Amino acid sequence: MDALITNQYDASCAALNLSLCHQLLNLSEAQILKQTHFFSGRYENIYVDSKQFQELEHILFKAKEYAAEILAIPDDKLKIGCWINIMHQGHTTSLHRHDDDDELLSGVYYLKVPEQSGHFVFHHVGEQQIIEPLEGHFLFFSPTLNHEVTENESIEARVSIGFNIGRLNTEETN
Question: Burial, 37: exposed, middle or buried (Cβ in 10 Å; 0-12, 13-18, 19+)?
């Protein structure tokens, strides 16, 4: 599973992109729970309470459904954590991976992808795989894969939702 990469379009999620993107680009300080990974003048990850955004809840629900299929684990046995990534002109996301804790699967969902707003690049066994992000698409991959996002050269922001999926602990289900 080290090189697992799956790209999935979802029309029900894509229909929510414009509304959710507008809400996320206009977040108030009160809506932001925390921000992490401060590099080159920006926080790469913005955390919000997903329950405040009906559209985000739907996207996370669908992500868990797809993850359940990929992992062959019932979705009620999975948990998901997410963050928002807003990349303005000149921003990049540094090389990293997601296998810090109990992640089984990582992913990203694309809300807004202007032309020339950067590529998702996987680094695996001395090779690179360049993925063209597409609005309305989920990209699922192994948390052990090193990856980065190239520079947004567009004057518009690129907006995505990153997430990690793990197995629910027995304490969490009680």
Answer: middle
